[in-house]
Amino acid sequence: MITKCLFPAAGYGTRFLPATKAMPKEMLPIVDKPLIQLGVAEAMEAGMNDIGVISGRGKRAIEDHFDISYELEHQIAGSSKETLLDEIRHIIDTCTFSYTRQVEMKGLGHAILTGERLVGNNPFGVVLSDDYCTNEDSPGVLKQMADVFSEYHCTIVAIEEVPLDQTDKYGVIEGKEIQDGLFKISSMVEKPAPEDAPTNLAIIGRYILTPDIFQIIRNTPPGANGEMQITDAINTQAQKRLVLGYKFKGRRFDCGSLEGFVQATNYVYEGMQS
């Protein structure tokens, strides 16, 4: 069983300036819950209660959010608002949080490598909080992936079909479908031009990685923009051992974009009203 999950959270969130000038983008709320809280709840559902956050300067609000606020608790004790903290209290009581800093912005691969000491020699999940995933009919995306891992014990990336003219925004896989919605990956490419994309199956911000990925990241030369690309490292891993792409059940919102963030907010708010 996988118990550890990393949350890369050191990015600047420049697409949301000026809102993210002093507030971490991971703390942007979808109605009444920050993005990172929604991601932690998804990890917790999958049994991943050891949460590792890779943060940076200006991210103190994340640590404070997953801690007790005694003044606030005192002020609302016995009032109707006290129940509004029930969910975050449950997360705080259930999960253990560890933090480390990514001192240079050198890509997602580097962020994951920075979290090596937080997960050790264990398989682990990775959640990118600005991909908000929801599934009304069955378990969350990470729980679905953990169930696949329990059978195959290998690296798994979550994938979804995207329009062909948008492949240059994603890592894209090529592979053979071995079960309904499950692909044995033969290769991956980071942000290919539409005419060069092998498929329209794009990687989203949910991963389950095996610990050998750390050495592979170290040995992988910098890719696009001189950054350590996790796509390049997993592609190398796929040449040596089984790596799967899982077409998840549910819906994803790209909350790293203004349009996706508004769509997610409207979707959650409408669900609260129904």
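Above is the first protein from milestone M3; the second protein from the same milestone is given next.
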Amino acid sequence: MRKRGDGMIRLIFSDMDGTLLDENGALPAGFGTMYERLKEHGILFAPASGRQYASLVETFAPWQDEMIFLAENGTLVMEGGRELFAAPVDPALGLRVMQTGEALQGVYSVYCGKKQGYIHRADDVPAFRAELEKYVTKSMVTEDFAAVDDVPIKMAFFDPSGHADTTILPVMEQYADRMQVTLSSALWVDVYAQGVSKGVAAARVQEHLGLTPDECAAFGDYGNDLELMDAVTYSFAMANAIPAVQERARYRAPSNGEHGVMAACERILAGEFD
């Protein structure tokens, strides 16, 4: 059993899509066994994702009371159903961002609150629902985002053509002086409170647990994982990661299709990084 102060990795942060999850969006076979082995060695596991908190709880249902969840790109951090950290968006500014997104042709919008996600009726079509429900498990249709009784934490925009970097990102960058604007995948752009990221959330978790970056590892593949790579000493880029993440990370892991997080966890358990 590992003990405090022995210099070993005690906490692993992992992105979900393109990182821990396989090409079908499922946990790797044997994750439960791996999780129990990590726990036996005193190593905590914390999902860090752009996904909704409810989505993460659903994926990790057997362990939901034990894990710390960094949801919505770090804008909401939960432990045992209790909020550890949240970064709300100014409602007026959030509504302006939503109006900008809704003016884009062929783009779908989600107003993400602490309780759930909200979409306009015009966006409630099967093609978008299928994509939305991968990331936003709890959602409802609304006629007016301003009437929503919730605390906004993120505005998310989806381009089914897979060119969010050219169709959405340049438009949303008009808010970059007031908001964090992140390309979360080829399909999604997220806009949320300035100065917030998975990395900032990871630092809050480290402080909460009394851990240092030298006691933490992290896995990621896309632009919303860059700050997470900076928040830990043992940063791993997946083989399928974008170049910027590969440049930022200190170590490499096989692709998500090859269950790269699991392979790297084996190396951690073997003491390779002690």
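Note on the second protein: The CA atoms of residues 108 and 125 lie 10 Å apart.
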